Amino acid sequence: MRKHLSLLMEQNRLSPADLVEPQRSPVKPANRFSLQESSATDSTASRLANRIDRNVAAIPEAGTDDPTVSATTLAEYTFCPRAGILTHEKSYSDPEEEMPSLSLLPWYEKDAIEEAYGRSVYELFWLLVAFVVGLVVLSILPLPNLAYLLLMFVGATAWLHFTRNALVTWRELGKRRLSIRMAVQRDPNPNKLVPQPVDWFGLLLAGYEARRPEGVLRDEKRKLVGKPRRILQKGGMTIPVHRINKTDGKILPQHVVRVIAHCHLVEATEGTHCPFAIILFGNTYKGITVPNTVGNREHFYSMLERVRKMINDSKDGERQPPAPAVASMCQECPHGRPRPASEADKTIRYNEPLDPYLLVNGRRTIFHCDCGDRFRWKPEHRANQRLRRPS
Ligand code: SF4
């Protein structure tokens, strides 16, 4: 063996040191997020949190020319670059509330649901009393037949209207109350790097406290804003909650980018650990965790950089986002949905109205859409199929 090594060194003019395997030092580029094992001295909160060291400072600050980007713009850009630009130019921010139905009724807070349910029962009781009192009053009032019938008709219509609304509210709140009663404690493991199914009230049973963010969360240094629907707190963990309209449990890349942006925002503004975000599905209390992994954060950051560049290029007129490679993406897109053309409803770009890109149907009714007006084309929206450019 020694002879063989000497021969090799002679042939390749190597010294003995060259044959020793070099020590590998860990590569840690500035923008990568490092993995750390939790130490024995960690606090309870840190131990509960993910072992990923999510160093907020690892994300470079935005430049002076960079625009402020919302989590919604980021999500839309991930879906389609044109949708991202449209959202940004319309100054669209995260919606204040996203209730799937009966938007005035409480959805997330247990106590508020119980209280509203009690009120709805009380309301039904008083409607029943009003019915009996109305019947008694009508039977003793000495009215001519026509006035009697008229009063009865008006009273019955109003009573039916209020009773119907009260019954719908009572039934809906009853369903939500049942979900509270049926909930089983669900405490997702913050160290898991894969999504875990959750249930809203199961999380509350596991000790998570829910609150509504007081305003839009802002990371001024990175020029990022966003507003989760709710924020859950447990120990040193802060978990943003988002709700999507889909009920089939499928999470798309735009959903992941949005909630990871929310994770970044809660960490940057509150200085707490955010090992995962939660996405709730449609008109249900079911949801899933989205782990705040290195990969997800790197994807979020790369989308943030790309959207900033695209916004700047598009504003300067240097480059516009291309049409999607797959036309079917436009089929259900709200930016491509045609609407009747009117002076009062123009597409707005940086507070300036755009000239509509007109389309007509067989009856010569004129339509336009946001994406068409902005990018001067006819998107392949399902409702656009029978529309054509006016001759
Ligand atoms: S209509 Fe099509 S191109 Fe326009 S924003 Fe929607 S998906 Fe993108």
Write down how many β-strands occur, each being a DSSP E stretch of 2 or more residues. 14
Q: What number of structural domains do the residues give?
A: 3
Backbone shape: flat
What proportion strand? 5-15%
**Spatial strand order of the main sheet:** 2-9-8-7-6-3
The whole-angstrom Rg is 30 Å
Mean pLDDT: 83
Order of helices and strands: HHEHHHHEHEEEEEHEEHEEEEEH
Largest sheet: 6 strands, mixed
Structural class: alpha+beta
Hetero groups in this structure are: iron/sulfur cluster
How would you describe what is shown here?
It is a single chain. By secondary structure, this protein is of the alpha+beta class. The protein folds into three domains: 55-98 and 212-318, no CATH class; 110-182; 327-384, no CATH class. The chain is built from ten helices and 14 strands. The protein has helices at residues 2-12, 44-48, 71-79, 81-89, 110-140, 145-182, 200-205, 253-270, 294-316, 370-375; strands at residues 69-70, 197-199, 209-211, 217-219, 224-226, 230-234, 237-244, 276-281, 286-291, 339-340, 348-349, 352-353, 359-360, 366-368. It has a six-stranded mixed β-sheet. Helix 3 (71-79) packs antiparallel against helix 4 (81-89), helix 3 (71-79) packs antiparallel against helix 8 and helix 8 packs across helix 9. It is flat. The model is unreliable at 11-52 and 96-102 (pLDDT under 50). Iron/sulfur cluster binds next to helix 4.
